[in-house]
């Protein structure tokens, strides 16, 4: 069975085509700059053929049409007909409280997702557009929605409610939802497999450290807390997002700098985090380089980043009553060796002891704690698209 996975953003669209018998990726890539000058499609197939097709891609529909042409192309295509695609799985950023698992999309469900779009105004409309275009271009093919929030719907009220007037929760749905759910769920399951233990019996802290970064406390297979909140702004320091701050800073800066809500929102989401604190870049590799070259502000930004992760490890060990495993994933988590070392330093009291030699790895599944450490630490490459493909397959089978 072949499954098409789509992660549709406002001006870009990531895709993968899976052969589910083997879970191999037949083709993958990205369409970038949709509706903007210099748009292009990147395409790579399982025979190692790579293409960058520069074309005027004015709409998502035009982008997906171009992609379909390439999937079917004689020289580098991977399909004979689009009918070979048994279903399309879509990443949907926000499922609110309604969707605690992936679901077959129909008009009723889409209307419900649309009604919640003010919870993720930058993402949901784009996700919906991807779904609509696929419905139009592949009218006979089932479409499945996989929500970034679903995995965290198991959090107890005390973890997801903010101490704000209760009416805002009731009126506007203001609560913690959490994101990166497919990733946290996937690496927690993988960690249990790597330990050869039952997920239901483990206390795992998952650290998804990418451009966007979040952590989750996964107890007995369920997310009981996570660092992102009402939006993906809360929690860890990220590439350009500030993470946790005193909320009183917001009106203070707005008044001092005469800013409108959209302007402060832009600063917190796009100009803060590693970029804001380092004054160098939002990219971990650039900051590491600068810090090595002696840039003290870059070094400080790294310290702030690591310190926040360490604080959450402590917090989540506390709420779970201990921790059996800590998992690192996503761009930084999988690759930044020094970052992992610094985060874990001083956590011996939690049974965490890193094996520096084992930790000297990038992007591979590996246990990096010393052999006799009570708490296992591991690197597990995430695979959100595979989770979407598996869910999609299960729903249509
Ligand atoms: P996104 O959230 O956009 O999917 P990724 O998971 O790809 O992000 O993570 C991007 C981050 O990973 C960037 O900060 C990048 O610098 C960092 N990263 C990637 N490779 C390395 C590496 N070899 N060493 C350190 N950081 C890395």
Q: What would you note in describing this structure?
A:
ATP binds at residues 14, 208-212, 283-285, 331-335. Homodimer. The record marks 180, 241 as: Transition state stabilizer. Belongs to the acetokinase family. GO terms for molecular function: acetate kinase activity; ATP binding; magnesium ion binding. By secondary structure, the chain is α/β, with parallel strands linked by helices. The chain folds into two domains: 2-147, Nucleotidyltransferase, domain 5 (2-Layer Sandwich); 181-379, ATPase, nucleotide binding domain (Nucleotidyltransferase, domain 5), CATH 3.30.420. Helix content is 38%, strand content 20%. The chain contains 15 helices and 14 strands. The strands form two sheets. The chain has an eight-stranded mixed β-sheet, with helices on both faces. It has a six-stranded mixed β-sheet with strand order 11-10-9-12-14-13, with helices on both faces. α1 crosses α3 (124-137) and α10 (284-292) crosses α11 (296-320). The longest helix is centred in the last third of the chain and has 25 residues, at 296-320. The protein is globular. The model has no long low-confidence stretch (mean pLDDT 97). The structure holds adenosine-5'-diphosphate.
Look at the structure and name the CATH superfamily of the largest domain: ATPase, nucleotide binding domain
Structural class of the helices, strands and pairings?
alpha/beta
What would CATH call the architecture of the largest domain? 2-Layer Sandwich
| Principal-axis shape | globular
Strand order of the largest sheet: 5-4-3-2-1-6-8-7
Q: Please estimate the helix content.
A: 25-40%
Low-confidence stretches: none
Q: In the CATH hierarchy, what is the class of the largest domain?
A: Alpha Beta
As for the number of domains, it is: 2
What kind of sheet is the major sheet?
8 strands, mixed
Binding site for substrate: 91
Subcellular location: Cytoplasm
Cofactor: Mg(2+); Mn(2+)
Binding site for ATP: 14, 208-212, 283-285, 331-335
């Amino acid at each position: 069975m072949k499954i098409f996975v789509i992660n549709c953003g406002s001006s870009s669209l990531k895709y993968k085509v899976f052969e589910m018998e083997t879970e191999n990726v037949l083709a993958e890539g990205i369409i970038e700059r949709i509706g903007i000058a210099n748009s292009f499609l990147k395409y790579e197939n399982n025979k190692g053929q790579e293409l960058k097709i520069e074309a005027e891609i004015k709409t998502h529909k035009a982008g997906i049409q171009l992609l379909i042409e390439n999937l079917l192309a004689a020289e580098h295509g991977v399909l004979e007909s689009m009918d070979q695609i048994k279903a399309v799985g879509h990443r949907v950023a926000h499922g609110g409280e309604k969707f605690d698992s992936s679901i077959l999309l129909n008009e009723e469900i889409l209307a419900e997702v649309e009604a919640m779009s003010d919870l993720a105004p930058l993402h949901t409309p784009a996700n919906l557009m991807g779904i609509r275009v696929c419905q139009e271009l592949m009218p006979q093919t089932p479409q499945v929605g996989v929500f970034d929030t679903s995995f965290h719907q198991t959090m107890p009220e005390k973890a997801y409610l903010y101490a704000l007037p209760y009416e805002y929760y009731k009126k506007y749905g203001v609560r913690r939802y959490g994101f990166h759910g497919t990733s946290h769920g996937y690496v927690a399951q993988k960690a249990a497999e790597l330990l050869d233990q039952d997920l239901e019996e483990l206390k795992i802290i998952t650290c998804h450290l990418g451009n966007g970064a979040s952590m989750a406390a996964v107890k007995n297979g369920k997310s009981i807390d996570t660092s992102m909140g009402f939006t993906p702004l809360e929690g860890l320091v990220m590439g350009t997002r500030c993470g946790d701050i005193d909320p009183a800073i917001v009106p203070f800066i707005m008044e001092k700098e005469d800013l409108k809500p959209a302007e402060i929102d832009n600063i917190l989401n796009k100009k803060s985090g590693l970029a804001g604190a380092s004054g160098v870049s939002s990219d971990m590799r650039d900051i590491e380089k600068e810090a090595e070259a002696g840039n003290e502000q870059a070094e400080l930004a790294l310290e702030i980043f690591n310190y926040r992760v360490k604080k959450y490890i402590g917090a989540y060990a506390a709420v779970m009553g201990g921790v059996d495993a800590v998992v690192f994933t996503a761009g930084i988590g999988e690759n930044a060796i020094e970052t992992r070392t610094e985060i874990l330093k001083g956590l011996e009291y939690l049974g965490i002891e890193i094996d520096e030699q084992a930790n000297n790895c990038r992007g591979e599944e590996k246990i990096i704690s010393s052999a006799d450490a009570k708490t296992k630490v591991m690197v597990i490459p995430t695979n959100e698209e595979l989770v979407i493909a598996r869910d999609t397959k299960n729903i249509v089978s």
